[in-house]
Amino acid sequence: MKPVRVGICGLGTVGGGTFNVLTRNADDIARRAGRPIVIEQVAFRSLNPECDTTGIRTTSDVFEVATNPDIDVMVELIGGYDLARELVLTAIENGKHVVTANKALIAVHGNEIFKAAHEKGVIVAFEAAVAGGIPVIKSLREGLGANRIEWVAGIINGTGNYILTHMRDEGRAFEDVLAEAQALGYAEADPTFDVEGIDAAHKLTILASIAYGVPLQFDRAFTEGISRITAEDVEQADNLGYVIKHLGISKRTEAGLELRVHPTLIPKERLLANVHGVKNAIAVMGDAVGPTLYYGAGAGAEPTASAVVADLLDVARDISTAHRYRVPYLAFSGIGDDVNKLPIMPMEDIITAYYLRLLAVDRPGVLARVATILSEQGISIEALIQKEATEGELVPIILLTHRTREKQMNEAIRLIESLADIAGPVTRIRVESLDEQE
Ligand SMILES: NC(=O)C1=CN([C@@H]2O[C@H](COP(=O)(O)OP(=O)(O)OC[C@H]3O[C@@H](n4cnc5c(N)ncnc54)[C@H](O)[C@@H]3O)[C@@H](O)[C@H]2O)C=CC1
Ligand SMILES: N[C@@H](CC=O)C(=O)O
């Protein structure tokens, strides 16, 4: 059968991995796809020393690939928003299928890109955009296609989980572990995307769109990163029986969809609490199947390449089918008026339990004043740790609350921070028991 001809744009971590996996496993891939998948052209700024491009057409102009009539599928691995958008739209305009690992691109410009692809009858596949090598998009789109999805929750940033794991287990400094994750090729070009939760919010936006059949709404996601987590929080969470993980959480509720990314206390015995290093794990609850869990490498050259090449295999199989019969890539059906109108809930309406850490002046009555504020907001305390005070020092007070509405907690924190006995901002970490979820 006629080969599928691929053009790769970008030969960095993922581009290099994709090039090497496609080359090394060419025979197996051809057997699985029913036809060979060949690299026709590669565009890069500087050659990746791990890739032997001998005999392959190369260029420094990515648009040469997007417009090359000898190419069936363009693989976008340059990253970023604007140039990648222009490149992908050019490839679509030129009738090419597109495979990308670029979650920023899909989360922010996906609605426009899918509309263009739908009109042109081409495929835009993006398995590698969420959770590296874990086939969670395929699982949601196809394996769980019979289910009404109730919630999706998971660790979806490998760099962040790598940092939290090594800070906890080895007591290492944040910056030191981040530099290591960058050297290993896990981090984004701008690592603030990893540590401030933006990358995870991109991924959660994509997962929610597929899970519930809603348009991509990155601008509605609540996003908080791990940069303010201290060693003290990690230790106190441990004392209370919890582990701090950075989670993306999306739940279907009667009021709409929750879409939130933030550090979270999870009970130590939960599966997600035991996912370490660069590994990601996503739990999905379907009404028919119940809870399911997807686990594996969330970043890195060849794990991510595994997902990119899986998309190429899908494209190779799908292009022999009329496009209206293909599994829709984004939501439930074509891009049009029939999209699901489930609203994204305001963060103020989210209900969860909280871990609070405050620094208090050691004076009689301070705890009573804090407890009164919480009680006046209808918030009850589940556990409390107050450390011994040393003369003249501020005392950390750790509180674990029962579930309450975010709006009430915002007001309680505002009032606590205004007390003369309290120094500095209150640290708040949300708690997910995941009880009803696993
Ligand atoms: N590194 C990882 O583990 C993962 C990365 N991704 C995504 O994959 C994409 C690529 O990421 P990495 O490979 O890590 O980045 P990278 O920075 O290692 O590679 C990007 C490559 O594209 C090249 N490039 C950029 N603009 C170009 C242009 N105009 N013309 C030619 N070459 C150009 C750069 O020189 C670089 O070699 C990003 O969208 C990223 O979010 C997704 C999953 C995992
Ligand atoms: N920077 C990302 C790469 C994969 O998506 C991460 O660390 O998860």
Automatic annotation (TrEMBL):
InterPro entries in alphabetical order: ACT-like_dom_sf, ACT_dom, Asp/hSer_DH_NAD-bd, HDH, HDH_cat, HDH_CS, NAD(P)-bd_dom_sf
Keywords, alphabetical: Amino-acid biosynthesis, Methionine biosynthesis, NADP, Oxidoreductase, Threonine biosynthesis
GO molecular function: homoserine dehydrogenase activity
The EC number(s) this enzyme carries: 1.1.1.3
Annotated pathway: Amino-acid biosynthesis; L-threonine biosynthesis; L-threonine from L-aspartate: step 3/5; Amino-acid biosynthesis; L-methionine biosynthesis via de novo pathway; L-homoserine from L-aspartate: step 3/3
Domain of life: Bacteria
ACT domain mapped to chain residues: 355-431
Top EC class of this enzyme: oxidoreductase
Family assignment from sequence similarity: Belongs to the homoserine dehydrogenase family.
Protein name: Homoserine dehydrogenase
Source species of the chain: Halomonas aquatica
